[in-house]
Write a structure and sequence with these properties.
Number of strands: 6
Distance between the termini: 118 Å
Helix content: 55-70%
Strand content: under 5%
Strand order of the largest sheet: 1-2
Mean pLDDT: 74
Radius of gyration: 46 Å
Oligomer: single chain
Length: 840
């Protein structure tokens, strides 16, 4: 009876949960109880050679699987499935290929998704009574998910559509695979409801990761809360992924809650978890919390890895805690954690920013056992880029003295640093001694030194080094020749440049390129041999080298500077006809040529072409346009001299300014500010601006310059500055000296008498200190006497409403103030001041 009951339950289990993958048996009921609760079935097993497992399931035929896999992979035909079908038919495989065997074959050829998909489609079409189940569908979906083909998503959708068409019901693994492929797609959720499946822990994890991969930490956090409410909790990998996403989005509170919840749910954080939290708290400035997290990690016997150390060191460095940074670095080395380049870069930056680069030697000593050639090269290169050449040189010397073998990158970095600092003797000396450390000097090293020598125009050293290179150095390459040609051209050594170019032409390893011709054409043209430059240009075209925009621009500039503007214009047209589009530099060169020759109409047309091409004018373009508008298209421009300056200014200039002149200026400025006569400059206080400022201010405020009446008024008010005593006039007349000064005085006096303006409207608002700051001829005072005794060194003290300034003419001392109303910054030199001081 016990045996019958067991068999009955077995059949009931089969009835309730039957699916396509279940093994089918034929049988009949032989006994049954009265209440029908138990019965016995006699099974008729099929007569076959297939071996069964203890539960009665057929075992996959390994020899058949291996044979079919070999046929699929080893046959060179484009369609190996023909040979598979032929083998199955000729060998009379009985029973035919099963679903589990097909799944094993798919697993063996997973590295070839197209072949796997062909075999997947082949099975139901060519094998009798073969029908895929959800397991083989899952297998092909897994293979397609790892495919790199751009059409893999379409292939997956086609498999799902075929699955639904045939009525094959997927399981939860199918949904998990689809979430991994498509992310949190609506199709995945619809299939989940259609197949009446329940999400398990792995499904939630896949959905969480899908949202986080899509950089949507908000939806990921909601999935996490749904997951925990249903009693599922992520693993350590999912926790770290969620915390990292929240930290990157600066959701600090949410990250801290998840971190605390993680520890409560008995999922112990690892080194990566603490690293994420340390980095997040450090970025928001909570360095104390970051250090506390680091100590918490140590208390839990978690050995910090390289990332944890680097993150904590970076937090300390961001808060300029140099001592703690170096201390943690020493602990890192003690715990046998090798620093990498990022570690040293963080320490270098904090030492440089805090002015403690001298402690770099201490860092090197701490990590002495890990200092190798690569680290030395990185440190030298980084110090050089940061502009600390002396520290880089000291570290390089340490490496040179204590290491028998050198590092090429370190030596190249040191060469670049020396060349950048202009220490060419040291650079050439280093280049000659590199072989002592087992390093052969290469072409790049020589080219680095050649470039620096050429920029500094040290041609003698350049020639010596080139001779040495030809004797016992590496062979010159095309870059070497181009650098030499350009260097000789920069130094106006045309013969040497042509000689190097001819040497390049005779070289069997390399021939002149566009850069070579550009350098030679520039050398010839800039040094006056435009015809030879043009010949080289034609030679370049004959050799099949297409001139580029640099070639055309260079030659156009050479034609323009030699007054061959027509040739420059023809070359520009040729440039366009050959499909080489000019850039803004080309347009500026030709515009300047046309402007200097007075061909304004052509220049305007050229500017229109520039705009049509869509180029943006730069400052040089606008300066040329300003000259075109002003009509100042002269070949040689001379500064127009003010009719008053020259024969007038020199006798009015004060004697050499002494210390007492500056003291006098300081006292007068101090009193002016103290008694409210003026406002202190640049304090944001709106000043009382008179209607008409000083004429010198008109250089900056053009709106006042059109009123000649106001100008004459200011001249009248400033007459005191050129007033001379009768005694002085008699002496000058008697000796015939300073007659021009008297003429000026008389001309100004006539203007004064003609205008006779007494209205206070045009007088500077000097307050009650007018006697001191702007005295009139009738107002003699002790201050006037002091000014006269000072020799005129401080006599031009003005209050124009925009500025209170003083200028001793002999030294050009410019007083300065900023007017807050107009925001103008002016330098006044008085009525007869020098123009160069005004326009500074």
């Amino acid at each position: 009876m016990k045996k019958k009951t067991v068999v009955g339950y077995f059949v009931q289990w089969r009835r309730g949960y039957y699916n396509g993958s279940t093994t089918k048996y034929n049988g009949r009921v032989v006994t049954e109880t009265d209440n029908g609760r138990s019965f016995a079935v006699k099974l008729h097993l099929p007569s076959t050679n297939i071996q069964l497992d203890p539960k009665g399931y057929p075992l996959p035929r390994r020899h058949l699987i291996c044979k079919l896999v070999n046929i699929l992979l080893s046959n060179g035909s484009n369609n190996p499935l023909i040979y598979v079908q032929e083998y199955l038919q000729t060998q009379s495989i009985s029973p035919p290929l099963t679903v589990s065997e097909a799944s094993e074959i798919l697993k063996s050829i997973h590295h070839s998704p197209p072949l796997a998909l062909q075999f997947f489609k082949f099975c139901p079409l060519s094998i009798p009574k073969f029908r895929h189940d959800c397991f083989t569908y899952n297998r092909i979906l897994l293979i397609l998910s790892s495919s790199l083909n751009c059409d893999r998503f379409d292939s997956v959708r086609a498999v799902i559509n075929d699955m639904e068409r045939l009525g094959v019901r997927g399981n939860i693994s199918t949904v998990n695979l689809l979430i991994g492929i498509f992310g949190a797609d609506e199709m995945c959720m619809q299939l989940l409801k259609k197949w009446e499946l329940k999400m398990n822990r792995y499904t939630y994890k896949c959905l969480l990761q899908a949202h986080l991969r899509g950089r949507d930490s908000g939806k990921g956090l909601r999935v996490y809360h749904d997951m925990t409410r249903k009693g599922y909790y992520p693993d350590i990998f999912a926790y770290n992924m969620l915390l990292d996403a929240l930290a990157k989005d600066y959701k600090v509170d949410e990250a801290n809650k998840v971190f605390q919840d993680m520890k409560r749910k008995h999922c112990e954080p690892d080194q990566y978890t603490y690293t994420i939290m340390i980095r997040m708290t450090g970025k928001i400035g909570k360095h104390d919390d970051a250090i506390a997290l680091f100590h918490e990690m140590l208390s839990k016997k978690l050995a910090p890895n390289l990332i944890a150390y680097n993150t904590t060191i970076q937090v300390l460095a961001m808060n300029r805690m140099v001592d703690k940074t170096i201390y943690l670095f020493s602990k890192m080395v003690e715990n046998d954690c090798r620093p990498n380049e990022f570690t040293y870069s963080v320490i270098l930056n904090v030492l440089a920013s805090e002015g403690q680069l001298g402690r770099l030697d201490e860092v090197v000593q701490i990590s002495k056992k890990y200092m190798n050639k690569g680290i030395y090269a990185y440190l030298v290169r980084t110090l050089s880029k940061l502009g600390h050449a002396s520290e880089a040189h000291r570290l390089f010397c340490y490496m040179w003295n204590y290491h028998d073998k050198g590092d090429r990158d370190a030596y190249l970095s040191m060469l670049e640093s020396l060349c950048k600092e202009g220490k060419m003797i040291e650079a050439m000396d280093l280049l000659s001694k590199i072989h002592e450390k087992g390093i052969d000097s290469d072409t790049i090293m020589y080219n680095t030194v050649f470039t620096a020598l050429g920029k500094s125009k040290q041609i003698s050293h350049l020639l010596d080094l080139y001779d040495k290179m030809k004797q016992d150095g590496p062979l010159p390459d095309i870059f070497t020749y181009n650098i030499l040609i350009s260097s000789f051209g920069r130094a106006a050594r045309v013969d040497e440049a042509v000689k190097i170019f001819e040497e390049l032409e005779n070289n069997s390893d390399c021939k002149p390129d566009i850069v070579s011709y550009n350098s030679l054409i520039n050398c010839l043209g800039k040094n006056g041999d435009v015809d030879e430059a043009h010949m080289r240009f034609k030679e370049m075209e004959e050799k099949g080298l297409n001139p580029d925009v640099v070639t055309y621009s260079t030659l156009i500039e050479c034609f323009g500077k030699s007054d061959k503007v027509d040739m420059a214009c023809r070359l520009f047209d040729q440039m366009l006809s050959h499909g080489c589009y000019p850039n803004i530099v080309t347009y500026n060169i030709l515009l300047d040529c046309l402007e200097r020759c007075g061909r304004t109409a052509e220049a305007v047309d050229l500017y229109a072409k520039l705009k049509e091409q869509g180029l943006t004018p730069d400052s040089i373009t606008y300066s040329i346009l300003e000259r075109l508008q002003s009509g100042s298209h002269r070949k040689f421009r001379t500064r127009r001299q003010n009719p008053i300056t020259g024969w007038v200014v020199s006798p009015l200039r004060a004697p050499i300014v002494g210390l007492h002149h500056y003291l006098m200026l300081f006292v007068m400025l101090a009193f002016s500010v103290l008694f409210g006569s003026i406002k202190a400059p640049d304090l944001g206080v709106v000043q009382d601006v008179p209607q008409h400022p000083h004429p010198c201010a008109q250089k900056f405020y053009v709106s006042y310059a059109s009123d000649s009446y106001a100008i004459r008024t200011v001249i009248y008010q400033d007459m005191v500055y050129v007033t001379i005593t009768n005694q002085k006039k008699n002496e000058d007349l008697a000796h015939g000296q300073n007659s021009m000064l008297i003429k000026l005085y008389m001309s100004m006096k006539s203007i004064w008498d003609h205008v006779m303006v007494q209205d206070d409207e045009y007088r500077p608002n000097c307050g009650f200190l007018a006697d001191f700051l702007q005295p009139l001829p009738s107002r003699e005072s002790a201050w006037i006497n002091l000014l006269k005794k000072a020799g005129g060194g401080c006599y031009d003290l003005l209050y124009s409403g925009h500025m209170l300034v003083s200028c001793p003419y002999s030294y050009g001392l410019d007083g300065m103030a900023v007017g807050t109303r107009h925001g103008g910054l002016g330098f006044s030199v008085g009525l007869f001041g020098r123009k160069k001081n005004v326009n500074r």
